[in-house]
Amino acid sequence: MFEGWYAWAENLKLIHRRKRIFFTTLRSNRFVNLSKEQGDSHLEDLKWTPDRLAHGVLVKLQEVPFDVRLFKLVAPDGDIDWVITNDLAETVTAQVAEDSSDVRWQGEELHRGSKQLTGSEQCQGRAARAQRNHLACCYHA
User: Fold this and answer.
1) Other C-beta atoms within 10 Å of 56: how many?
2) Which of 22, 23, 39, 69 has the least C-beta neighbours within 10 A?
3) Which H/E stretch holds residue 59?
4) Alpha-carbon torsion 43, 47, 53, 56, what sign?
5) How many domains does the chain have?
6) Sheet containing 67-74: order of strands
7) Which domain holds residue 103?
């Protein structure tokens, strides 16, 4: 599970080659391909039936040689998260994708909080050793 910031083609291919399952978000400006005949479509232009909302839809991403399952997760306030996974099993539903996205978000909050509370981002060191020492002191504090 990782933030959509890292969801570029090379990372996705590397994770897939290592036979690992990923869940990540996509930015809303991405294009996906439902079929060769249809061509690329913007995420906002996809038609979402109740079955697609529950079980996702298989799509192809640009420069990614394998299919991924795309989910549209709509929050109560109307925000939309576009979640993809390379786990194509039928048991992966929107609820599984939402639970994975929630765990990913908890990790984001943990890192954000640790940076704010420990001052780890205030390091003035240039050398790798100085940065490691600074981070170690922050986490010990």
Assistant:
1) 22
2) 39
3) strand 57-61
4) negative
5) 1
6) 23-26, 80-85, 67-74, 57-61, 31-33, 40-42
7) 4-140
